[in-house]
Protein: GNAT family N-acetyltransferase
Amino acid sequence: MIRSATPDDLPDILRLIRDLAEYERALHEVKVTEEQLRDSLFRDEPKVFAHIAEHEGEVVGFSLWFLTFSTWNGTHGIYLEDLFVDPDARGHGYGKALLIELARIADARGYERVEWAVLNWNRPTIEFYESLGARPQDEWTVYRLTGDTLTKAARA
Structure:
């Protein structure tokens, strides 16, 4: 079962974020709190959204996403920040169902893309995405300003 997240899901969302970060070898980088998630996901006009995968009343996966905008297409799109399913629940279609839900939202709203990033070493996930028809955008390289470099740029 896939559904929109509720405030009651916050402990599970935070748990899954931490589990994802551990899988990606970056648990030490997780700083987010339940309060920050509550403020972002459940404010009057949220800018970020989440869906939950449930099995027999237990949260086993989530997706967290936000809107993008294409100046070339003139339409919004969805950027999938995170998608994670508990290892014990994998292979039952929860990841696929979460991704299909985002595709349905995009299609229903006239958005022209759903996109995300995946770590180059994460072959099982890459193969999963490609099995659904997703293709890498090899001609683009992701750049990021963060931490001290962000502060330095902001004060230039």
Observations:
- The chain has one domain: 2-154.
